[in-house]
Amino acid sequence: MLCSFTGSEGPPLAMLRDTPPARPPLTSRRNPIVTRYRAAAKGDLEGLLLLDGPHLVADALAANVTIEHAVVATDASDADEIRPLLAALSARAVDTAAASSSVMAAVSPLRSPSAVVAIARRPEADIGRLYMGTPLVLIVDDVQDPGNMGAIVRVAEAGGATGVLAAGVSADPYGWKALRGSMGSTLRLPVDRVADVERAVAQARSNGCRVIATAPRGGRSVFDVDMRSATAVLIGGEGAGLPPALIAAADERITIPMQAPVESLNAAVTAAIVVYEARRQRTVK
């Protein structure tokens, strides 16, 4: 049976169809549980993150991320997509509350509220995994759009990079928008935030990485630069890109060839091209 929400904060969710809930579903948007979910969506709960939607909740369960609480729409508990999630949440003794549609609209930051929303603990950054084997690390500096950040993490995992470091004023890779953009990759790939990009570069060098900076012009073609050895790639933010001093201090500067009049590419697109060129080089025989 499904686990029930214990304590006085909210109602349980019935786990068996013939067993009625001990209390009615959450119906008040003023409930403290709703306040907590809103705080999680804003990133105001230290060490916690918001998982919005069945896909992310399932990915978190598969990645053994600790889920502290879940809210499920009362009209979705019997859906084919939701039943396995409820069983998995129950097996892990996760406090799970049923909620009305109006409450789901309050706890889910999406315009069309998700059927399942959860609060989970942020995974601990595993720097050891980041530099395992022949590392390919993306150091992302001042990428402020959460969608771009999530897409970069997603392509990093897809292309075989070993991890992502979000530096400077980059968007939080564990924010709900970035998590959705990563499609769960952030929950599996080593991802961490670092305040100082220079420190991230120094750490990469101390782990044997050659540092490559992306630049819209003036560098060698990305297709001519050897990335088969341990490599850290610097990706700049929207608009300004990487600071000139950071580009100058890199071991190599690379540029993606572009047909005029195009002068630059989206940060996530840049990351994808670089990662997949590195993958091509590392897998070709």
Total of DSSP H or I helical runs spanning 4+ residues: 10
CATH superfamily of the largest domain, called what? Answer: SPOUT methyltransferase, trefoil knot domain
Rg is 22 Å
Shape: elongated
Spatial sequence of strands, sheet with the most strands: 7-6-5-10-8-11-9
Query: Which percent bin holds the helix content?
Result: 25-40%
| Topology order in helix (H) and strand (E) letters | HEHEHEHEHEHEHEHEEEHEH
CATH architectural type of the largest domain: 3-Layer(aba) Sandwich
Q: Kindly provide the name of the CATH class of the largest domain.
A: Alpha Beta
Structural class of the secondary elements? alpha/beta
Number of domains: 2
Task: Provide the β-strand percentage band.
Answer: 15-25%
Instruction: Show unreliable segments.
Output: 1-22
Mean pLDDT: 89
Extended strand count:
11
How does this model look, in words?
This protein has 10 helices and 11 strands. The protein has 2 domains: 32-121, 60s Ribosomal Protein L30, Chain: A (2-Layer Sandwich), CATH 3.30.1330; 127-283, Alpha/beta knot, CATH 3.40.1280. It has helices spanning 32-41, 54-62, 83-91, 101-107, 127-130, 146-158, 176-182, 197-206, 244-249, 267-283, and strands at residues 48-52, 67-73, 95-99, 116-121, 136-141, 163-167, 191-194, 210-214, 220-221, 231-236, 252-255. With 285 residues, the protein is of the alpha/beta class. The N and C termini lie far apart (52 Å). The radius of gyration is 22 Å and the shape is elongated. The strands form 2 sheets. It has a 7-stranded parallel sheet with strand order 7-6-5-10-8-11-9, sandwiched between helices. The chain has a 4-stranded mixed sheet with strand order 1-4-2-3, with helices on both faces.
